[in-house]
Amino acid sequence: MKLSRAIDALNEWVAGKVIWLVLVVTLISAGNAIVRKLFNISSNGWLEIQWYLFSAIFLLCAGYALLRNAHVRIDIVVGRFGPRVAAWIDILGTLLFLFPATALVIYLSWDVFLEAWRSGERSANQGGLIFWPARLLVPLGFSLLWLQGVSELIKRLGFLSGHYVPQEVHDGPRDEEALAEDIRRARGLQGDAQ
């Protein structure tokens, strides 16, 4: 469980730092748009840094999203079973899908990053940026996701063996349950009006 807590802390820390990129990319986007409209000046470098930063946000926070259970899931299926079956589904999904997919992306993207770094690959656009920092984001982000998969696997196995109690406490219905209730209410209201 110590390893799991350390991985969770790492992804929490990374997300805490990366969240500031949302403000940075917003300011760059707004500043670039204002300068372009007012002075008819633009730069490919400023446009490219925006997608670099968006990439950093999404890739480096993928592990954090898994930690917070914010990834797309099959809750409609898992929700029909108890917590032990849900834990087994998570374990199998992690072992059969998450680990192989992330390992493959890490393996394939590492050589792409190294080649971009060695060659000094640049954007073909005038004033464009070098590519290796953006290429590095892919193996780095997927490594964080893979590590979080290790943490989640440890937690599920700990739960099944009685060594871990999930701290996920819901004060109210989950988002999916609340949406389903809203739909039921809306259909009930429509039925009454007809």
From TrEMBL:
The topology of this chain with respect to the membrane is: Multi-pass membrane protein
Q: Tell me yes or no: is Ribosomal protein among this UniProt entry's keywords.
A: no
Q: Which UniProt keywords apply?
A: Cell inner membrane, Cell membrane, Membrane, Transmembrane, Transmembrane helix, Transport
One Pfam family from the UniProt entry? DctQ
The Tripartite ATP-independent periplasmic transporters DctQ component domain covers 26-157
Could you name the domain of life of the organism this protein comes from?
Bacteria
The membrane-spanning stretches of this chain are 49-67, 88-110, 130-147
Sections of the chain in a coiled coil? none
- What does the UniProt entry say about where the protein is found? Cell inner membrane
Query: What is the recorded function of this protein according to its Swiss-Prot or TrEMBL entry?
Result: Part of the tripartite ATP-independent periplasmic (TRAP) transport system.
Which protein family is named in the record? Belongs to the TRAP transporter small permease family.
The record describes its quaternary structure and partners as: The complex comprises the extracytoplasmic solute receptor protein and the two transmembrane proteins.
Recorded protein name is TRAP transporter small permease protein
